[in-house]
Amino acid sequence: MLEVRKVAKAFDGFQAVAGVSLAVPRGQIAAIIGPNGAGKTTLFNLITGHLRPDAGAVLLDGRDITGLPPHDVCRLGMGRSFQRINIFPRLTVFQNVQAGFISHRGRGLDLFSRVGQLYREETEALLESLGLLDRSGEVSGFLSHGAQKQLELGIALASEPRLLLLDEPTAGMSAAETRETIQLISRIAAERGLTLLFTEHDMEVVFSIAQKITVLHQGRVIAEGAPAEVRNDPEVRRVYLGERR
Amino acid sequence: MSGLRRIPWALVLVVAALFVPALGSRFYTFVATDVAILALFAVSLNLLLGYTGLVSFGHAAYFGIGAYATGILMKKAGIPFLLAFPAAGVLAGLFALVFGFFCVRLTKIYFAMLTLAFAQIVWAICFKWNDVTGGEQGMPEIPYPDLAWMERLPLAGQLRTSDHFYLLTVVLVAACLWVLRRIVGSPFGRILTTIRENPERAEFIGVNVRRFELIAFVIAGAFAGLAGGLFGIFNRGVFPDFVYWSKSSEVLIMTILGGIGYFYGPAVGALVLLVLNQQITSYTQYWPFILGTILIVLLFAFPSGIVGALDAAARRLARPRRA
Q1: Substitution target from B51, B179, B205, B214 for chain A, most A beta carbons within 10 A
Q2: CATH number of the domain at A2-244, out of 3.40.30.10, 3.30.1330.40, 2.60.40.2550, 3.40.50.300?
């Protein structure tokens, strides 16, 4: 479904991503791990069109989407959540998610109908599945960190993506919140038949849900495979897992 | 509360405004016309400022283009108001489309500076193009539209021409505000608020941010142009200072004074600023000094504007006190 071919990106001479290739087949749950500064977020930004790669190509369902702006990439079925909270803080929880539906279903240029109840059913169903329905009317900026992270996921899902990229979906969460979020993500991915690509620092999370893991180090892929293979890869142990033995 | 909310306050206000000429004072009608027109100008700016999160520092350009369009068409070409008025909106919208195309490519302060740059170019052209705009001298004696038909209306028969023009202004401004109100309450309006809140995130829900900003810019410009078209007639002439940067800052001040978080906030700002101006300049020549002081108090004490402060006070009263 997603194919990344040798993408590279440098910032002021610093090679953040140096020729990374990876492929995520339909329905797979794939993870990218790596130490801080390995280039995970940059790689995400290259895939979603936020940054334009210096070299290489990104293909979605065989279609070349390299260098397309994010709004086009989103329309082609790729959703994304962010590592930092990235919501619409002064809108209500309901409005945050509703905006995703409005945009995705092409009603954004409708200047004359009333927005109030538009896509109410869809929005409320999605909030329900995220456990946010009872906070629907609250201003999203005042929610707790964990609830904002879930809303972040809700906004991404409102674009009804086939491929979902999650950048550290449990960053800053307590152990309990992390477990809940992971269950939520696996459940939603299964229900909707989503293909998932995520980055994560919590190894327990990664090894519990990922079917394939790609390890990034200094902008390069140093290992790739099923969790068990990656866990036993000597190179990975050296640069990343090694110290914890 | 809910009973009070059900009353269509906007309609009540429009009907009340139609009775201002009945007070019989030429001065009241004059101030009321001024307020109505500038209220539309300020509300149009707020589509950018309050709803899309874009600070335009050159909104007077579109106001001025509208004023010149209507003025030139009516005075030099003898085209009736019925056509010359919409022409102001169309022409201002077209200029907004061209200038906006470049402006939305920039963000924040760079966007503001570019809107200012375009406005100053328009000003320079109006100031120098003697054959068309009358140059520095401007274009006096814009005719009133033919409003003789109003004499046949009940109650309006005995009024002056300026009163008739005021009635027309109230109806047109109300219609424009109604359209703008519909726009901000539409799905399009909601998408604009997502851009204000977080343009990066808006891109990732599939919003072509630049395109939406450009459409908002064109709509705001067109309505500013309509306000300008009315203002030229009201003012009995069109002058280059309509386009000057101080006009842009004046409307910016009105908008912020009233409250950018509220649809009618800028209209309230226009009312307060113009009435204060009228009152204070009759006592002192230091109006800019007073204006500066008002602004400072506003920014520190009531950052959400007059309507914001009233809203907060009303909420405090409505909430039952905890013992």
Answers
A1: B205
A2: 3.40.50.300
